[in-house]
Amino acid sequence: MNRYAGQVPFYKMHGCGNDFVFIDNRIARVPEEDMAHWARAVCRPHTGVGADGLVFLELVSAAWKARHGGADSGSESLKRAGRPDAEPDYVWHFYNADGSRAGMCGNASRCAALLSLRLGLAGPEHVLGTDVGLVRASVNQQDSTAEVELPPVRDARPAVSLDVEGRSFDVLHADTGVPHAVIFLHSEAEVEAVDVQRAGAAIRFHPRFAPAGVNVNFAALAAPSVLRLRTYERGVEGETLACGTGAAATAYCAFRQGLTGPDARLVTSGGEILGIRIRDAEDGDRPLLSGRAITVFTGELHLAAVLEAR
Asked: What is the pLDDT of residues 88-103, one digit of tens each?
């Protein structure tokens, strides 16, 4: 009997060009042990849908609570923010295109917030459960925008000089749900000229960030509180049109370096603008990420064709 039979509905969305396939796992019921394979197959261009990541949305289960109900889940900060229940309205399983599981993705969380409202998983103000904690979301369905409050910034490190690809970069570090290297260049022109693929890969795999590696952001001040940003993402292993957690890490580092105030706008490679607000919370600096989330198309996966393609 064919293991992969039938059709499964899916939703293709993007945030500033950072694109994802979403599956309502209340319907699909994909077991977690199969999700990485689904991600590699569905995100593959030509034989799949093509995307930067695959996201499964589902209701909170006892297994999820047991795995993520610890002290670092973000529940205490949500209680202080007026969520006494401190439980997510729904949860996700997020996978990069290469099948690696990621704790957080800023742009995908904005898309998830909008889609969850449309699917009846949550209301306009709700909480998403992720591998790195609980994420508060606010949706404006009329203009297809969403704001999400990312986890507190962790592991902020001062700049170190790294020699890669024949030049030296001063590299900062901040974890906004996933680890990011942040490099400030002197001008927009320099950001446009940098070889993100080669320099980004060299830093992403640099021994200093082993074994997990980092996402790599190249940025420059374009105007007061406006930054031009290009990002190399691990898991995609290339430049993406936008990266929400990268925008948050870059805005945080710019604020701490005195380049901007706590509010900044970041111009992405996709040409759209992400807004970042750095909020001082009891558990640390929390970036709030806002921008548009767009549904590109919906359809059905023909499982035998997609999942068994080689």
From this structure: 999 999 999 999 999 8
pLDDT at 85 over 80: no
43 given a catalytic annotation: no
* Cα distance between residue 295 and residue 22, in whole Å: 10
Task: Single out the residue of 174, 100, 86 nearest to residue 133, CA to CA.
Answer: 86
- Could you give phi then psi for residue 151, rounded to 5 degrees? -60, 160
Query: Does 105 participate in catalysis according to the annotation?
Result: yes
Q: How far apart are CA 116 and CA 148, in angstroms?
A: 13
d(CA 93, CA 102) in angstroms, rounded, equals 8
Residues near 272 by Cβ (< 8 Å), separated by ≥ 6? 16, 17, 242, 291, 292
Tell whether the model's pLDDT for residue 281 goes beyond 90: no
Q: pTM for this one?
A: 0.88
Indicate the helix (H) or strand (E) that contains 172.
strand 167-175
Give residue-wise pLDDT tens across range 123-151.
999 999 999 999 999 999 889 999 999 99
Q: What is the dihedral of CA 215, 70, 158, 199, to 10 degrees?
A: -10
Q: For residues 296 and 239, give the distance between their C-alpha atoms in angstroms, rounded to a whole number.
A: 21
Distance CA 221, CA 193 (A): 15
Question: Does the bond joining 152 to the residue before it have cis omega, within 30 degrees of 0?
Answer: no
Residue of 16, 111, 243, 253 marked active site? 243
Rounded to an integer, what distance in angstroms lies between the CA atom of residue 12 and that of residue 66?
A: 31
Closest CA to 91 of 113, 124, 114, 118: 113
Among candidate residues 16, 105, 111, 253, the one labeled active-site is: 105
